[in-house]
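lol so apparently i was supposed to do this last week
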Amino acid sequence: MVSILLSWYSTTARVFFWRRPNIDPWVVLVSEVMLQQTQASRVEQRLPEFLDVFPTPQAMAEASAGTVLKMWSGMGYNRRALRLQETAVAITERFAGRVPGEVDQLKSLPGIGPYTSAAVACFAFGRRVVVLDVNVRRVYTRISRRCTTTVDVDDDTTLTAYAESIIPHDSPSQWHHAVMDLGATICTARSPQCPLCPLQDFCPSAHVLQQASRPKKQEPSWRGQPRRIWRGRIVEFLRSSSQEASVHNITTRLFGSDTTSEDADFVQSLLTSLATEGMIVRKGQTAQLVD
Ligand code: SF4
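anyway here it is w/ iron/sulfur cluster bound
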């Protein structure tokens, strides 16, 4: 199974900036943080410009939070930008500006969780560690046992034990990229394309998966749109404003002439949380992006 999947990957690999040979670990770390909640095509587009401004952890550590947030424009989930800067500061202070290569060291950095630490150790340093993202979890579950529905996914303890048994010793990075690509293009969540799959002769779940769906998680929302979207719009508006903006202007910008007092209260609550998180500065009835 391993050699077949690696052979398939050698001819079909998706080409991304962060998959280049001998890639700088800082590039891998930044791309993994971006990829957590942003589409790969968008990250591919924005990453080079971002790295021009922040080519090293030290360059990001020395920048203002406002500059980091401005460069994060269009990526969404702006909190990640500030967390990444905290990571850059910690790398600069504790690791002399070099991204560490061990999972435990990476995990000790602010904002770096189990997935990102494993991904950086594997993709930047070639460590044979278990990397579990949503695609890998799905593929491992399906190829390790006979599943019955498209939503079957095993727990991480089970998947980690399986992964330990199958990750090749000589090419852990290519292996994980191959599994991720299979999950993204063929063994997809809703419509696995078993007749096109290189593993169909070995996979216990081949051709038997029944379509199923999980109940959707409810996000806090306002006027039918997730709260995070409204937060993002405020940050985007303040990014484009050269000066501070009044709360009235922000509210009108979001809701137009249709604004209600409930809308105004909602905007106030968003501004309060953005200020608490250090993304904006509030002065009376005005707000601006952090410097
Ligand atoms: S055979 Fe089907 S279920 Fe198995 S890995 Fe391939 S696409 Fe997924």
